[in-house]
Amino acid sequence: MKRIPIILSVLLSLAVASCGGGGPTTTINVTMTDFQFAPNQFTVPAGQEITLNIVNTGAVVHNFVIIKLGNTAGAAFEDDDDANVYWQERDIQPGGDISVTFIAPTEPGEYEVVCRTEGHIASGMVGKLIVVAGE
Ligand SMILES: [Cu+2]
Questions:
Q1: Do 128 and 28 form a contact (C-beta atoms < 8 A)?
Q2: What is the whole-number distance in angstroms between the Cα of residue 35 and the centre of ligand 1?
Q3: What secondary structure letter does DSSP report for 94?
Q4: Which element (helix H / strand E) includes 6?
Q5: pLDDT, tens digit, 9 for 90 and up, residues 57-66
Q6: In whole angstroms, what is the distance from residue 107 CA to residue 49 CA?
Q7: What are phi and psi of 57, to 5 degrees?
Q8: pTM for the whole thing?
Q9: 110 strand-pairing partners
Q10: CA separation for the pair 72, 86 (Å, rounded)
Q11: 83: how many CB neighbours lie within 10 A of its CB?
Q12: Ligand 1: distance of its center to the CA of 108 in Å?
């Protein structure tokens, strides 16, 4: 009778170990359209180098701008938002694709991602970078 709890605990630990999918990734693939990021939510491990692969399938220039934790660009990216930029890749041309790297913030939390081209936030070019603590 004492074996049942042992078997259960083995099964439970196997189940926990297999739940790795959907976790943080060090590679982000994002497609920019007029006017969206697809996908628009990215989960990355804190402090790690992240490879960002961007394709712009839209007809206009787009940008990938990460806003510092606790800040927001609001309804429009203005000059005074520059001070709140954590990292950015600017002027990805229509039809263009690039691969760049950046270091994820060390502080876990939800960071706003926007396109700073005038009018694009209002048109829906916002996303979320979710930074999770490393293990
Ligand atoms: Cu844009």
A1: no
A2: 6
A3: T
A4: helix 3-17
A5: 999 999 999 9
A6: 14
A7: -95, 5
A8: 0.84
A9: 130
A10: 11
A11: 8
A12: 26
